[in-house]
What does this fold into?
Amino acid sequence: MDSASSSTASPVPTAPEIASTFKILLVGDSNVGKSSILLRFTDDHFLPPEDTSATIGVDFKVKMYDLDGKRYKLTLWDTAGQERFRTLTSSYYRGAQGVILVYDVSSRESFEHLDNWVEELNTYCSNDDVVKMVVGNKIDKEAERQVSRKDGADYARRHQTLFLECSAKTKIGVQQAMEELVNKIVETPSLWRKQLPSKGTVSVDETVTSSGFGANGCAC
Amino acid sequence: MSDHLDNEHFDTLIVGTGATESIIANELSAAGHKVLHIDRNSYYGGPNACFSLSGFLTWTLTRDFRQVPQLDLHIGNGLFAIDKPGPIESLTAQLMTYHKEGDLSTAQETLDGLLANDRAYMVEPVPKLVLCRGNMIDLLVDQGVGDFMRFRGVDHNYLVTRQGLERVPESKEDIFASTSLTLVEKRKLMRLMTTLGANLEKPEGSFSQLLAQQFKLTGKLHDTVLYAVARQTGYELSAQEGCDRVYKYVNSIGRYGRMAYLCAQYGGGSEIAQSFCRLCAVTGGTYILDEKLECIEPNEDGFKVSLRRGTAQVSRIVMDPGYYSPNSAALDSVVSRAVCILDNPVLGTDTTCVLTFLDEGSVVSLLYVTSATMAVPEGQALMYAWTEGTIASTKPLLQRAVGVVAQQANVVLSVFFEVRELTAPATDGIFYTSQPDTSVDFESTYDAAQQVLSMINKPDTRI
It folds into this structure.
């Protein structure tokens, strides 16, 4: 029943084989622009503010990323609004290789709350090597800036994380942030080599079910 | 967005984040309801929660004493009766104040040793498995929860008596290969599997009678099918119920491997509850943990509810009866449970087993898990045992069950407690869920959720 090899099942025969799948999380206060960063990176879209008041309907997005002739599958996970009362599930953090901690450069409060997110991360992330990146979003609002670039960089240095400023609105820095993060994950094999499912585990996705789900399980 | 509710409107308030309530939350949210989902604890899962060792011991001090009135903690030969809530600032010191008998200093040393590996433990007060071909797995797959969760097949099913363990044959191949079955017994079992795999015409009487009369099963063979496959526990199964259960069990074999059950990595109920909560949030559900339901005032649009973090107007409420409710009452149904840490993985280092202990007419269900499902550090094992009845009457039985299985190991830490099932009838606009029972799998959890959903979706209930 496992006879379908990747070459015969793949609709695009020339696509390189996926070397690894990375789970990347976005965390941070409400309204700092986590979903906008996600959307900009995966779909190169930016929704006007009136459409983005709450994140509804985004579970995670998938993006293929090529590096050194290898293809990586990135799954980028949004908080689904569960950051509002700080009720992210521990299973959200489990198995993540990269975490992007987002604050809004025009909100001092969102920057000060990074401590809470770092603490939560340290509690729930199963792997100590998980790559963290602090990202200051909304640099297009330069006039309203409340957190200097230096403050952000200093914070990142203290917590030994990567750091970047970006604007999901104007695109600046978003692609670069993701690239840095993924490069760093790729450079840290301990992170993803041992994340391979251990022998004997069962994944209950649709492909292994023998009957019954193909028809109504298809989203397309 | 503010972290305070200012009379926001929700269609449904769901109180408690157990697996049952979480399934309901996700179903309603997916159907377009605006859902507010709260829990009084700072963690997800309610009765299905999963803890680190210190988290589990903290639970013993902070648990709902109405629902879990009695609890004994054994460490080495020390006994600690945790009969009243305690502060948790200094967990070990606080636990030691409940000392009743045995050696205190050895207990403290043992506890410190175990807590050094605190986060390598995943302890569930009420562990459950997933049947490979049942309603729960279909829901998980249908909802894409396979993306969040990983499972392991349960490797063995054992029937246990005071004489020891005997493996339950899982397949026709197993039956053929068995050396403990006689040829006649093999024929009888094959006939049973073939006949029950198809639909029997509405059989009458009890399942036990059916096995004895129609299939001529006697002695251990009869008990194996009745208790280890159909999993009869408290009451006598009707022939129809028994046939349905065997049918489900036999059909579960082979779907994800050669076993009928799956065990979730990192604690099943908690992972399932969290997955459904996350899905509910993705479709717009609002989540608040560590929240207190202070007041419910009926009004013409439903209820005005006061929470610590503000007020909300809701049209209806779905509630775990363990939360305060004037109508909730303890049922006669009481389940006693044991959670035991073994210093030796007696049934295999990366093995998961379900077992049934039969002793003088009593039935004890057991579950054996190891580091393979992240339940304990390597080199140890976790044994769960549970049966109907109060701790006062069943503790020796539970100890005997664990003792027979874990002969080659020391029980370094064990907790015995009884869980009283609370219930409350639905009142206008408030629906109560039912609580975990003695079953070994999540099928009854699924049924409990569907029951509430069908009540909510009935046209004559208020919207």
Q: What stands out?
A: Residues 16-217 of chain A form a domain with the Rossmann fold fold (CATH 3.40.50.300). The beta strands of chain A are 18-27, 60-67, 70-77, 98-104, 131-137, 162-165, 201-202.
